[in-house]
Design brief:
By secondary structure, the protein is an all-alpha fold. Among the domains are: 50-85; 87-131. Helix content is 90%, strand content 0%.
Length: 131
């Protein structure tokens, strides 16, 4: 073999070693990137699961609050209906007050207004004491 062919073999061997080192570095880099990618995917899946749990909790809370709001609205409507209804007792006492001012007795109030005797006597005594 000549010296020139020995030089080419050396260059070729060195090139192969360099190529092998480059391939090894690329393989190691690719492996590291793959591992990092898998870690990122795992982290994202974990965050996604946490977000789904939070969203489900919020949905359940929202549904519960919606039910509670409906209950409160129903109670409010009931209270509004009760307020809107005239109070029969107030009408009876107003009528009794007018009759007393016209001179009615407790017996008259019991008979005409349907009041209990004790109520009628109390109203008569109160009205007469204020006049």
């Amino acid at each position: 073999m000549s010296l020139l062919s020995f030089g080419w073999l050396t260059v070729l061997a060195i090139s192969n070693v360099v190529l092998l080192l480059v391939c090894a570095a690329l393989w190691w880099t690719l492996r590291s990137l793959r591992r990092r990618h898998q870690q990122d995917i795992s982290m994202l899946e974990s965050h996604n699961a946490q977000l789904q749990q939070a969203q489900q909790s919020l949905s359940k809370s929202t549904i519960g609050m919606g039910r509670r709001i409906k209950e409160l609205e129903a109670k409010l409507q009931q209270v509004q209906r009760n307020v809107a209804l005239p109070n029969v007792d107030d009408d009876v006492f107003e009528q009794a007050s007018r009759l007393i001012s016209l001179g009615a007795t407790a017996d008259d109030l019991v008979e005409s207004c349907g009041m209990a005797r004790g109520e009628a006597e109390l109203l008569v005594s109160l009205k007469r004491s204020t006049h």
